[in-house]
Amino acid sequence: MKDLYRLMPEEMEKMVVDIGQQRYRADQILYPLYYKFPKDISELRQLPSAIRDKLVLEGFMIGSATEIHRVVSDDGDTTKLLLNLVDGTPVETVLIQYPSTKINGHPRSTICVSTQVGCAMGCVFCATGQMGFMRNLKAEEIIAQVIHFADLLAKRNQHITNLVFMGMGEPLANYDETIRAVRLLTHQRGFGIGQRNITISTIGIISGIDRLADEDLQIGLAISLHAPNDKLRQKLVPTAKPNSVNDLIAAGKRYFMKTGRRVTFEYALIEGVNDSLEIARELALLLKGNGSHVNLIPINPTAGNFQRPNRKNVIEFEKILYNAGVNCTVRVEKGSEISAACGQLRTDIIG
Ligand code: SAH
Ligand code: SF4
Q: Is 92 in the pocket of ligand 1 (CB under 6 A)?
């Protein structure tokens, strides 16, 4: 079966012409796909039924996700779904809302999508990493997660304002499908979200970062650093190369030079592992003066025996960076009681 959500507008035009129809029919498929969220070709009402039948005959379908489990945080701001993809694969997708941050009168609503089932990078504190790698997601399977939430939000008269590739998996290890999804989701004739409202988070695949910088996209990049030196980083990210810390700083600079987009370094704070004030000073020294931004993420205890540092420690860690002039934020803890860390829900439900 061929999923209509896979096709770029130009490919959609070629497809309709190939099946003997006029080019303009493409937009009669694209518009409902991205604004009405149909689940079946029969719902593409703008198209004459003969064309709908032809599409079915040609093996086309509309891939949509089915919700199999939902958890909502106590404050109602975080909704985490376990979604079944067309082939029955369960993936996690999260909505994080910030009711106090209004964008054109609507709450900031960020969707966090998965790009792989499992992950080969093996980060010791990450539930997805501990699952191992199962498979890459197709662009249309990434889009299905977005569309599911777009539909859910539309029913509340809200919409997706931001999109982050921070769910299960390593987006740059599934480069082509991730970029296809980004292009479809940002295309004016596709979902049409602004490139600047998208962030890709990577554990640091250097070739992928450099490729991304050359894509002529204005998307944000977050690099998961987690340690200021290679010895510690390799303990947390077993697949990291021996010189990854410096390589990542350099790749971040190149990305900034090419795109003009500031790079964020993510730092998962783990009690007694990478949260000492001495390590904070080492991190400050490493990042000082390079204009980057650090996002401290007190971890959700998932894999292994890792714990989140106490609040006081987090604030002191942040203060050291701040005093060194390193721009820094602490990720607002949302949804930790609903297993909102990446890969956690699938692990809890599916095992
Ligand atoms: N593979 C990419 C993107 C997905 S992980 C990457 O690693 O960047 C997205 C973010 O979730 C990463 O910054 C990662 O550090 C964070 N994360 C993973 N496990 C976590 C946990 N147990 N608690 C909090 N954050 C976690
Ligand atoms: Fe993979 Fe990211 Fe989890 Fe590491 S933190 S195992 S790269 S998903």
A: no
Residues 133 and 179 grouped into a single domain = yes
293 CA distance to ligand 1 centroid (A)? 17
The one catalytic residue among 13, 92, 141, 266: 92
Q: Which amino acid is at 4?
A: L
Q: Is residue 349 part of a domain?
A: no
Task: List, for residues 184-195, the tens digit of each pLDDT value.
Answer: 999 999 999 999
Residue 116 shares a structural domain with residue 223? yes
Type of residue found at 52: R
Per the structure, how many domains does the chain have? 2
Among protein residues, the one with the nearest Cα to ligand 1's atom 4 is 166
Can you give the pTM of this predicted structure? Answer: 0.96
pLDDT tens digits along 2-53: 999 999 999 999 999 999 999 999 999 999 999 999 999 999 999 999 999 9
- Give the domain extent around 311: 66-338
Of 96, 68, 71, the C-alpha closest to 83 is 68
Q: How far is the CA of 127 from the centre of ligand 1 (A)?
A: 9
Do 70 and 156 fall within a single domain? Answer: yes
Same domain? For 42 and 71 the reply is no
Which string of b and e fits 263-273 if b means at least 16 CB within 10 Å?
A: bbbbbbbbbeb
- b/e 60-76 (16+ beta carbons within 10 angstroms → b): bbbbbbeeebebebeee
